[in-house]
Amino acid sequence: MILTKGEYCQFSLRTRVQLLREYGQLEFERTFEHIAVRIFALHDFYVEVVYNRLKGEVERAEPVNFINMMHLYEDSSGL
Amino acid sequence: MSKSVSFYETINQMVNYGLQKDIIHLYNEEEAFTGNYLHLRGKRVVNFGSCSYLGLEFDERLKQGSKEAIDRYGTQFSESRAYVSLKLYRDLEEAFLEIFEQPIVIVPTTTLGHLSNLPVLVQDEDAIIMDHQLHNSVQSSVSPLKARGVYTDLIRHNRMDQLEDKIKSLRSKFKKIWYMADGVYSMFGDNCPVDDVYALMDKYPELHAYIDDAHGMSVHGKHGRGFVLKNRPMHPKLIMATSLAKAFATGGAVMVYPDTDSMQRVRNCGAPLLSSGPMQPAVLGAALACAKIHLTPEIYTLQEELHDRIRFTNLMLKKYGIPTPSQPEGGVFFVAVSLPKLAFNMVRRMLDAGFYTNIAVFPVVPMKQSGLRFTITRLHTFTQIEAFIAAMAEELPKAMKEESMTIEDIYKAFRMTAPEEAAIDQAVQTAIGQSLSLRLHHYASITEVNKNLWDSMMVNRGSFDWDGMKTLETAFTNNDLPEDNWVFDYVVVKDMQGKPVVAGFLTTALWKDDMLSPAAVSKHVEGLRKTDPYYLTTKVTAVGSLLTEGEHLFIDKTSPLWKEALLLFIERAYALQEAYKSGNVVIRDFHSIDKEIDDLMVDNGFVRIGMPETSIVTDLSWEGKDGYYDSLSARSRQHFREDVRKHESRFDVKVVSTHPGARIMDYWYQLYLNVKSHSLELNTYDLPRKWFDEIFDNPKWEVLTLSLKREHGGTGQAVCVVFNYNAGNVYAPMVIGLDYTRNNEFKIYRQALYQLVMRAKELQKERVCLGFAAPIEKKKVGAKQIQAYAYIHSRDTFNMEVLATFKENTAHFSRQSND
Questions:
Q1: How far from B481 is each of A75, B253, B543, B580, B692, CA to CA, in Å?
Q2: Which ipTM did the prediction report?
Q3: Which residue among B309, B315, B382 sits closest to A7, beta carbon to beta carbon?
Q4: pLDDT tens for residues B575-591?
Q5: Lower CB count within 10 Å: N or C terminus of chain A?
Q6: Where are the domains of chain A?
Q7: Is the pTM of this model over 0.80?
């Protein structure tokens, strides 16, 4: 499935999550208290999904430049 | 055969073809289903044909609503709504009042709603203008109004400029002008320009709108009230009809009115509404449950989920390079494939690949704008949508190859700009011609064609042997008027041995679209042509010409390659249509229906139409006048005695084969115009005067003249002239001129027909081709009537539909003339 970041952003939050379910590949996952953050690879970009465990809902799913934030996942003491 | 019979035969043929391919009239074979899969032909396929866009048919609340209603009210409540309705009806009406914030009437089906609305709302003094692509359910409901004399007309799809022009021309003659359209069009999925319609209603007090928003309901707008009312209020001159049998997922329909008075009149007087059964408890229960969902914010979540799938579908269609004529905002999509054979091929391939989609072929779309109509619902996953589109992208090139078509053919048929790669594709010649070693020869003039070869195929068919064509070319080129200038093309497809398999000539000329319409229609159209001389005329590329008759197309059916050769011929005809920008291609005439040819023509985008009967005298084996008399039927003998033999001695009959001089020719031309002005049944342009001079350069033309002897009031001038072609074993009278002032007294026309038969006998011919028109008169001189057929491909059926509308307006025209 070929989709650009811009095209992905045109969809509603619910659909962005659904697209990740259907096409995304989970790359990383970290949990910070009640917030779970997952990084999915989708076509040629990454999407960061923020899940609020207390509310039981996805708060956001946004394309990210993963290279710039990789350190957050490599160094757990960073958070 | 009437044209309508032929029309239904063509539809029947199309449907039967689909049945043979096992792609229509299918049954879902599963005992139960709850998702978007169907079980067809022993295979589980993803359903891309459902109009339940929000997927609410599986919603537990709707199911429960149905069950509870049945438990409380039984399976049906069998009383006319004129007397008693279930309370559920009132509850539902209140819910819809809240949804639309306008007066409404609930009806069992949208069609029933139209049938209830239109006779009550549209008055005899009103006019109706329909969009060319208006849904059939509204068009069918307009038909009964035409019998009342309500004037109807068509405009091209979504052409608001044409609508405004019509309003301007009709507003002084009619009390109200109703514009009828769909909110979302059910085939191409595009929308009505509602803002423009509103603006016109504001500008012109006479304009009212009737819009069927069946495919917009639930999908768009506040409370899911549809596309038309999305982001805009109800216009005080708008009537809206919408369906509950699509995204609303329950069945039934709602009619929405601008005021209580209109609503109440339909409720009180809409006969089909009063006499048909009501919606039953199960449907009412589900509808009420669904209406409640529409009145909560949940409807917007559902809409959003659907719209994201629609957006995704548009993106995927673009990324996979699928040809589409529109970019829908709703759930209906259309993939362009052009010819029906490719559409059938693709639907079968998609079924094999695991996807069900609707075929869209004539008459729901024009012949060469066939396609795959598919729908997107909220139940589709994104992977299903992408897999479906990817399968189309994979199968389309294979199907095109199988049907010898290119992507450029598709873009051309839909008048869309082809991507660059398609143009390269077109440069490759068709596989058929190459692989089967057929060779197509194309000439621009008969002088380039070998005379012996042409005559060996055409000499006994009519007036279009080599010499006949030469005369025709000279007469119909270099003239002043557009209608008198024809373009000639000659196509001969030969096999490897150089033997012709299919051959014929084509002329491209301006035709009157009402040529074969009833005389009353032509009379009306001719009135309109006084201000717009080329109104309802179309440039046509046709096998044969407007001045030749007979089986123009040579087909050697003993050749094993005749079908492929015919396909090459058709392909060239289509290419000429493109080159000359012709509206129609016509392949004529056929004197019987050959099933193989018939299938091939329909498969390749043609509709068979019945031509007027042609009359041919086939028995010239009798000897002498007595022998001729004996060959006639008893009834014809009586006519012969009373109308022909009685007057025979009163005429001088001559055969003229040299030009008679300008003065006499002017007079003959006037005789011809006399006949022409009486012949609206076959409404063509007048022949140019030049043709009458040119024929004398060809010794095969001769003129039979009939003059009354002086003792019977004759002046020496002809009272009848017939221009005949004499070639091979055929005698072909082509043009007649008549002095009608003496016709009743001396039965001149009948005498002329008789004299033509005698002349053919004298020339030892085997047949006299008396042509179209006056079949009864011609039967009396021994002619047999042969039903002729032609195959027509219209790039666009708009003009034909306008004519059909005029035909149905007969009651209005009669009323006008009575006034």
A1: 87, 54, 22, 17, 16
A2: 0.81
A3: B315
A4: 899 899 888 899 998 98
A5: C
A6: 5-78
A7: no
